[in-house]
Amino acid sequence: MSVPSPSPRPIAIALAGLVALAVAMGIGRFAFTPLLPLMLAERSLTLAGASLLASANYLGYLLGALACTFQPWLWRRFGWSAVVNGPRLVRIGLAVTALLTLAMAADWTAAWTLLRFAAGVASAVVFLYTSGWCLEQLARRGVPSMGALIFVGPGAGIVASGLAATVLVQWGALAAVGWFTFGVLAVVLTALVWRVFHVRNGIAAPVAGTSGVAAAPPALPAGGIEMGLLATAYGLAGIGYIITATFLPVIARQALPESHWLDLFWPLFGAGVMVGALGASRLPPSGDMRVRLAICYAMQAAGVCAGLVSPTLAGFAIGSLLLGLPFTAITFFGLQEVRRLRPQQATSFMGLLTMVYGAGQIAGPPLAAWLVARSATPAAGFNLSLWIATALLVFGALLYLALARRFPMLRGLSGPRPAAPARRG
After folding, report:
1. Which residues does 166 contact at the CB level (< 8 Å), separation at least 6?
2. Which of 6, 219, 371, 382 has its CB surrounded by the most CB atoms within 10 Å?
3. pTM (2 decimals)?
């Protein structure tokens, strides 16, 4: 007779969520960025091929997130009944992420696009089900604020993969060695949290809009114009950050070819993500999320153009930090704003925001590659694409400020101010 496993402690759940997101995001999604210079130098990949692999990963993430978000509707639509076991799917997603990362070390260039697409799907599954299950379990144990630790995971994974890539570059290692190293790291980290994500520890489907904060009180539903502008502004962040997040090491090498600190810009971005996640969770919940989103966009715009204005070591370092600080804060604030405006349909509208954000991520790398191919020099092409990204982020910030002005919040309440015909739709 087997003895049931003891219920995991809150700190174990929070740290397991942190590690799971580090694997899913830091390795499954973003390990490609620090290894890209090695792959380009070895000529195993061209810039156009790199943009294709990046977009394939982002497309996989988008489709995986949408499938997870709308799976309850799909079950109902076809008249099926199913119980989604969150911990089991987290385990499967982590194992698949590790295997796909290891497979990138093999000389299967024809399969790389498919492998990166599948890694995107797996990372979305892990991200959503880890967030949903861990936050629910922490809330049941009376410590929902501990959920902030979970969202430090993506930044921690970026830091770990970036530092590992720095060491590999110093050793003159091949990109295949880097993929194998990251795959082994994913296996080790998955093994560390395997027992926490036990299938008997709880069953929970992801709930878009879960953020570890108290649910917003009922509010008058926002109209179609307001929700459409919110989705448009949110989607601009996808294309606004992704060009830098994909090509940062390549861009820095072109600007500072002799610097020994180039490979530390990406870990610095990850450190900014970690600090920003903790900082965003400490802000009072009563503020206007649209104003906070506008500030985040302005910060990212400054980060994107910092290296353009000052293509120096300090410029790229400051830019990396400013780009990373609002990275998860934007998602955190966006979730809360949707829950305020459409508390009864938060899942559906977070799916909409996820879709437009993902579309921006998919469009960014090919846009940069297209501009580089048609510019006098690669540096000129990257510069133009980054100025476009900066302009889109500034435009998104202005949209949020316009929303805050046109649809003000009632003082002391979370619901939008009832106003006229614009509320219909």
Report:
1. 34, 263, 264, 267
2. 382
3. 0.80
